[in-house]
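Ticket #139: bound-state structure for zinc ion.
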Amino acid sequence: VLVLRIYSEEVSVKTERRFQVVNITGYVEEVVRKSKIVEGFCLIFVPHATAALIINEYEPRIVSDYIKWITEVFKPGGGWRHDEIDDNAHAHIASSVIGTNRFMPVRGGSLARGAWQEVMLVELDGPRTRRVLIQVVGE
Ligand code: ZN
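RESOLUTION: The complex was predicted; output attached.
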């Protein structure tokens, strides 16, 4: 009989800049460890309209490239209608496209991730305090 368990935790992340990439892999791995779930998956979710999550390499040059890409594609102040009431249309659109959730497999009691894969919170309209919800589901 398969008995699924769900373990949830919320982590708070303070950002310091308008655009910032924060490596949160350590938090996620800590929650997976505390869950004591051996096989299953981990959902990572940011309950925000102007932040996003990515999984990729965390290295200073590529991190600045992520921000370069975001500001080139989702141009801040690019004539967006929403900027008439709130100065962050680019952040809403980037959050919509990049996404506010990620799933990762949990195997053998830890996150099954590639050597160059880190979980990152992408701040698109900082500085703010961001919440990250982490749910581990499995047995
Ligand atoms: Zn807004």
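RESOLUTION NOTES: The longest strand covers residues 5-14.
TICKET STATUS: resolved
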